[in-house]
């Protein structure tokens, strides 16, 4: 007799490496930096970098440390800039729609609220969904990040509303861009067991 049973459950957690938001169109990416020291001459150092999961750049000598001093002149430093691919805040498995960042009156003044809906486009069931948005003031400075967790599982094609409430920053105007979406995706495969 053949019975159907679930033989595999694959859980994949998507964790975007977004450190923060400086402006609505400017995000940061995780970058790995490696410093090399010449074994024959410990005074010579090289630097190389790569975006998360990417290729290492060609090593180059660390430039002279002449950009300034920190901690009452105890340390010299140099600013070295590295390039990296910035990840998209919204993964391909989800779609956001009806986004609206508005003011809402409260006892301590008005505060911003981001409302929207999330649609599951993955061929999987999403759970533990967390939508994180930032409050970016009119000067382009991030003031606060807040996360709304969507309860329950969302099947393929399913939709759920969410609300990110910036009540801890009263009387601050600005934009409310989505910074990241984290979730667990579960796929079930049913096959006959002999």
What CATH calls the topology of the largest domain is: Immunoglobulin-like
Largest sheet: 5 strands, antiparallel
Tell me the quaternary state: single chain
> Which structural class do the helices and strands define?
mainly beta
Task: Please report the number of helical segments.
Answer: 0
Count the domains: 2
Unreliably modeled segments:
1-27
The CATH class of the largest domain turns out to be Mainly Beta
Beta-sheet strand percentage?
A: over 45%
Spatial gap, N to C terminus: 7 Å
Give your account of this protein's structure.
- Strands 1, 11, 12, 14 and 15 form a five-stranded antiparallel β-sheet that branches.
- The relative contact order is 0.24.
- It contains no helices and 15 strands.
- With 194 residues, the chain is mainly β.
- It has two domains: 3-28 and 87-193, Immunoglobulin-like; 31-77, no CATH class.
- Strand 4 (31-37) and strand 5 form a beta hairpin.
Keywords:
Immunoglobulin-like, 2 domains, five-stranded antiparallel β-sheet, mainly beta
Topology overview:
Blueprint: E1 3-14, E2 21-23, E3 26-27, E4 31-37, E5 45-51, E6 60-61, E7 68-70, E8 75-77, E9 94-106, E10 109-120, E11 125-137, E12 142-150, E13 159-165, E14 174-175, E15 178-193
Antiparallel strand pairs: 1-15, 2-3, 4-5, 5-6, 7-8, 9-10, 10-13, 11-12, 11-14, 11-15
In short:
This protein has 194 residues and is an all-beta fold.
